Amino acid sequence: MSEDTWRSAGERIDTLVNSFGVGGAATRERAEQLVREVVDLYGEGLARILRMSDARAVDRFVRDDLVASLLLVGGLHPDDTETRIRTALDGVRPYLGSHGGDVELVGVENDVVTLRLTGSCQSCPSSSVTLELAVTDAVHAAAPETTSIEVVQPDEPSLIAADSLMSRIHAAAEHEWVAMPELESLADGDVAGFEVAALPVLVCRVDVTLYAYRDRCPSCTGSMAGARLGRVLGGGVALTCPVCRVHYDVRAAGACMDVDDLHLDPLPVLVRDGVTSVAVPTGSMS
User: Fold this and answer.
1) I want to staple 160 with a disulfide (CB 3.0 to 4.6 A). Which of 23, 43, 122, 165 is the partner?
2) Is the pLDDT score of 134 beyond 70?
3) CATH number of 81-172
C-alpha cells in the first residue's frame, strides 16, 4: 500500500459507511457495527503485539506514522497527549527556527491545545500562516483526538480570538504536501527553481537549511529565476531579484531588506515520513 493510499484510508472508510445511509438507519448501523468489530479485532491483535515487545520495539512502532495511527485508534499509544504533541513540535522546531520562530506547548485541556508562537516572524502575516500550517499539521497528526488549537502571543495575557485564529488555520489547511526528494541535492549556496503542483517555487539552501518561496518578486512582480544568494553585514543572507535588484532576507521569512512591508511568500519545507516535502496552496495557483 502506498503512502497516499493508507493516509486517505480513513476518509474512504467514512465515505463507504455514509453510503450505507441510503439503505436506511438499520443498514448504516450494521455498517458502523462492522467497522467497530474490525477495529476491535485488530486492536486486540496490536495490544498482544505490544505486550510481547520490548521497549526498543515499542519505540520503533510509535515512530512509524502508520503504526502510530493504528495505536491511537485503538487507544494503545504508550505516550499521553502532551508527550505526543511535544515530540511532534520538536520535529517542526528546526523549520520554525529557519523562519526566526519557535513554539511552546502551554498545555492541553478539554482536548484544546494551547500553544505559544514566538519569534520575529510574528510580524509577517505570510510567514505566520506557514508557521501555523506546519504546527497544525504536526499537532493533528500526533494527537487527532484534540479538537482545536489556541495560540497565546508572547507578553499578551489574552488568546487570539477564536474566529480569527480559525480563519487563519483554515487558510493554512488549504495546502497540499508534495514530496520533493530532489531538493536534498541542493548544496550550500545553491538556488534553484521548481514547479511544485503547478506552482513555480524557488528553493535555496543556506548551510544545512532549505528555504522555499513562491517564485515571484513582490517588488517587480516578475520571476526570480536567476537569483543569487549573498552574505550581508550582520550575518544575514540576501536573495537578490535578478530583475529589480531588490534584496530579501532568506533567514527572516523573506522580508525585504530595501523596502518596508514587502516580503517573499514562504512555503513550509519539512521532512515528512523521511522525505523532504513542500506545502503549496491547493486550487488556483495564480
Assistant:
1) 165
2) yes
3) 3.30.300.130
